[in-house]
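User: What would this chain look like folded?
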Amino acid sequence: MQPWQPLLDWWFGPEASASQTAGARQGLWFGKKDSQDAEARERFGDLVEQALDGGLTAWTEQPDGWLALLVLLDQLPRMIFRGSPRAFSGDSRAQALVADGLARGLDRHLSPIRQVFIYLVLEHAEDLASQERALYRYHLLLDGADARERELFAGFLDFSERHRVVIARFGRFPHRNAVLGRASSDEESAFLQEPGSRF
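Assistant: Here's the prediction, encoded as structure tokens.
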């Protein structure tokens, strides 16, 4: 078994359709539960630390390993270090690895539901060009989706569009300001009072 397989099994579950996988895993992916955060820390905290320290580079030689490393850098810190600056500490390395992997076409070897978590790294970037790239990739996923999966991938595209709008307006995600010790402008403070302003 490859060293990244337990992580991918936990994150995606057994082989299934995109809708079945998302239906079973949405709570893990996008929910906020102390028990899930604790499980992530207990099971994969050591790997996250290695990834944040610049390790596990050999994983990028295979598409699944590349994906797993990105999950360690982009998704799990948001769980393990929720509410602290370290939640975003893997973003810059993840973004560099995404750029490299996309240039090598690694994403094309992954199923569409797994590609979502490649492009989510771009969606998390406080950079408009990255947001545009994410939006383009989610459009491609929707265009290629089976009729039964279109609603699911339309939802991912919509979420990407919402992220892009915020970055186009503010150049950053205002909901991160408090955690990162950044002062919010009056416009950002007003925005944060609006429904749906926090991702």
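The chain has ten helices and no strands. If you want, I can go into more detail on any region.
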